[in-house]
Amino acid sequence: MPNPLEFGIIIVDEDGRIQRFLEKPTWGQVFSDTVNTGIYVMEPEVLAEVPAGRFRSTGQADVFPQLLKAGAPLYGWIADGYWEDVGSHESYLKAQADVLSGRVEAEIDGFEVSPGVWIREGAEVDPEALLSGPLCIGDYAKIEAGAQLREFTVVGSNVVVKEGAFLHRAVVHNNVYVGQGTTLRGCVIGKNTDVMGAARIEEGAVVGDECVIEPEAYVSAGVKVYPFKTIEAGAVVNTSVIWESRGQRTLFGPRGVSGLINVEITPELCVRLASAYATTLKKGAVVTTSRDVSRAARAFKRAVQGALNASAIDVVDLEAQPLPVARFRTARSECSGGIALRTTPGNPQSIDIIFLDERGAELSQAAARKLERVFSRQEYRRAFPGEIAELELPAAGGGVLRGRAAAQSVDMTGVREAALKVVVDCAGGTASLVLPELLGRIGRRGAHRQQPPRRGIADAEPGAGAGRHAAPVRARGLVPGRRSASGSTRSASGSSWWTTRGRWSATTGRCWWCSTSSRPNGGRAGSPCRSPPPASPSGCPASTGCRWCGPRPRCTASPRRPRPTT
Questions:
Q1: For residue 495, what pLDDT is reported?
Q2: Is the pLDDT assigned to residue 285 strictly greater than 70?
Q3: 68 sits in which H/E element
Q4: Buried-most residue among 154, 299, 515, 556 (CB within 10 A)?
Q5: Among residues 186, 219, 187, 180, which one has the least CA distance to residue 200?
């Protein structure tokens, strides 16, 4: 073999006895060009070397080297004939070409109508079709006028090749339809597949059985389309279609780029999308990123951030935020756009990737087409080492500033006078990061469900009673906490009490914020912990201000649970 690196090599003496084995060597280890083809004739005693109930290779890597070490007689026969391992697409096409060119002593069933052109019985070839051998056309195939079949093309049985189609070094299996003006170059088409008009399939591509390639679709070189898939009309497919059911023509749908998690939307796709988006922006531009609370959105957002930084785009990470808040922050800052990731509403198995412009709105059709064009051509921009951009986290107190800005942006006339009471089930979502502060700003008294593991009721207005909200909360399937007259709330699990200034733990017997052992009198009466909250994670010293309520002489905000990590 000219290149024995992918095989095991052996060396034999004059009598054919094997002297040495070496499995998959490097060029520095090659001592012979004789390879093991994996064809064995052995005595039954060899199988005794394989322990019962245990899988063990009988090849060069295991049993045979042990037999050789023990002095057992092992012989090899060096064959002079043709041998090709067709385990790869390239070697499969090479074997087809070798048969057609006569390098293999094989009998081709059919009539040789001209040098190298073989046509089997029942095939119908129009005289106006251009055939340039060597090639082979199967039985009952139909080649229409104007079709061109060039060198090393193999057409199976019952194949229809329409007018204007061009095939070169293509292997087309049985019962395939090749539409008008289709181009097939160096590819393999599985059986029962329809390749419609003006479609193009390039070098090294493989299309599985019973697929549909719709008109004007383009399958790039090296792409593999697994069986039973559909490539939409006009789609440009640059990556293999394996798990998804179809290759789509356009990236953008009604909710941005959407698809099944780790099936249609993968971290690799996120990297390519973010790289294409970055290419449409100037180097040094700033883009926001945000997500919901799902693990998939968190993982994919990290892939997006890395791709943006690698393309010389600075990133301001808004962490977990509702989509309206992400739009608001993008529009109010000096950002060129943003990318938000969220679970598809109503379908927890899917995810949406939403691209924003500098106004916080979704991309215009022109901008979306530009992004798709860069994505389909894979013309991504890369930054030089000194241009790698940075990732910036949001400043502390952002939730309070958003609450203030929202309260100033919305007409609150009559809201305070109405004395409304609001019950909100945040369902562990990002709304729990915004609504408490917003409701508190507009002076509404409300109850909302916090994210796990914290359960119970927390008011938007500190110190407000919760007894009046118990009925509506129970109606939504929640378990309210018990609030004392002093402002402490016992959680549903009974392991701790929340107060207006601290949390006392029944496990440690101390306050979580001040470490004192003063119990809030069983959560029923008495005074709760009154120590000022610390600077971290949710309080502040008087000199610096609070991350929850902004600069004040003394923080009086209730301790809040830290926001989810990114």
A1: 37
A2: yes
A3: helix 63-69
A4: 154
A5: 219
